[in-house]
Amino acid sequence: MNTRHLVDPELLPLIDLLPENAFTREALPTIRIESEGRFAFVGAPPIAAEVKVIAGEGGPLEVYWYDPAPGTKGRAALLHVHGGGMVIGSARSMQQGPSGIAAALGIPVASVEYRLAPEHPFPAPQQDCYAALKWLAASADELGIDPARIGITGESAGGGLAAATALMARDLGGPALAAQILTYPMLDHRSGSDPCPYGNPTTGEFVWTRAHNRFGWEALRGDYAADDAHKGWFSPSLAEDLAGLPPTWIGTGSLDLFLDEDLDYALRLVKAGVPVELHSYPGAIHAFNAVTEAAAAKAFTRDLLSAIARMLKV
Q: What is the largest CA-CA distance in the chain?
């Protein structure tokens, strides 16, 4: 089904800006280079990062630390997880988002350079995100943050990894999270594949397609069977119990491939007794907020920042 006529006209330039790359293992190195190059033109982030090196399951792990007021104590903080379909992107190249949040709200943000699939399949990316969360909480005094006001956020694959990290924190006894802020999160490995439970004909034509999604999830999965107690850490939609998760904000687009899984996850959270704020932006495709001057992107940014401020008591 052709859905171009359903796209918000202000967002149409995004379709032409992002090429229809066919994801294969052979093409992945080139796609990664092209992806990094697109972010090189964004310009310097509003707050420069201090790169901290922490201990991770797979060895030293970089965390990009954006601190708008070094030396201040008792602040809320965010752990940020970048997007990229589990296979591309980096905290090094994608600095504008976390730095912009830190500058807008005056709180520190840590962005984790997690390992990518397929070189590092599940559970490597999740382990890296969880290691960064544990470091953030354990270093609260040194970093000047309030351990009771730590949230986690991410976009696309980063949103899925943020949701997985929240599940890990609950299942492994902490650190406690005050909020999870999920931007069009990638939650369900079945989306776009034969066992997909959604079948929405109007989603997923642009930017991140069903074919892209199959590649990303297959790369992350490796030889994992997704049939044990940790399956929700791999694909959060598979988690059988969502009780005890932190208050949640979810923002997605009405034409995004992830719309249905995001709505389903939000409803399941509500049924589990988790406070949820949910936004679906009409005519919005995946990564729509990259068109920063579009009305939908401005509404998204307003809603995102106000939710973070409210949920973390900024």
A: 54
| Catalytic (active-site) positions | 156, 256, 286
* Half-sphere exposure in the Cβ direction for 77 (13 Å, CA): 34
What residues form DSSP beta bridges with 59? 56
pLDDT digits (tens, 9 = 90+) for 214-223: 999 999 999 9
Task: Name all domains of the chain by residue range, CATH numbers in brackets.
Answer: 4-311 (3.40.50.1820)
Q: Are the CB atoms for 181 and 129 separated by under 8 Å?
A: no
| Distance from C-alpha of 53 to C-alpha of 64, rounded to nearest angstrom | 9
User: pLDDT tens digits, residue range 151-187?
Assistant: 999 999 999 999 999 999 999 999 999 999 999 999 9
* Amino acid at residue number 130: Y
Angstrom distance (rounded) from CA 262 to CA 188: 9
CB-CB contact of 138 with 52 (8 Å): no
CA distance 14 to 287: 8
Q: What is the pTM of this model?
A: 0.97
